[in-house]
């Protein structure tokens, strides 16, 4: 898997084998410290959410 975009601003895509499998975006929300995760059908939702949560934690440390 590969992360492309701005991790610190929560604006990035997660790709696998050159294909986008998820998108993370803060621009969809006006609420502070909120962002959305859009996962393509057929993907491992738990894994994608774990990646997003881990990157969020790394960005705050």
Strand content of the residues, in percent? 35-45%
The spatial strand order of the largest sheet comes to 1-2-3-4
Helix content: 25-40%
Number of helices: 1
Number of domains: 1
Helix and strand pattern = EEEEH
Spans with pLDDT under 50 lasting ≥5 residues? none
Mean pLDDT: 89
**Which structural class do you get from the secondary structure elements?**
alpha+beta
CA gyration radius, whole angstroms: 11 Å
Question: What is the number of beta strands?
Answer: 4
Report the biggest beta sheet as strand number plus sense, adding barrel if it closes.
4 strands, antiparallel
- Give the termini distance in whole angstroms: 23 Å
Global shape:
globular
Description:
It is a single chain. With 61 residues, the protein is α+β, with helices and mostly antiparallel strands. It has one domain. The protein has one helix and four strands, in the order E-E-E-E-H. The chain has a four-stranded antiparallel β-sheet, with helices on one face. A hairpin with a 2-residue loop joins strand 2 and strand 3. The radius of gyration is 11 Å and the shape is globular. The chain starts with a strand and ends with a helix. The relative contact order is 0.21.
């Amino acid at each position: 898997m590969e992360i492309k975009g701005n991790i610190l601003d929560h604006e990035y895509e997660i790709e696998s084998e050159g294909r986008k499998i998820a998108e993370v975006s803060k621009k969809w929300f006006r609420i502070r410290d909120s962002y959305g995760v859009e996962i393509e059908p057929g993907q491992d939702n738990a894994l994608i959410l774990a990646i997003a949560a881990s990157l969020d934690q790394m960005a705050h440390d």
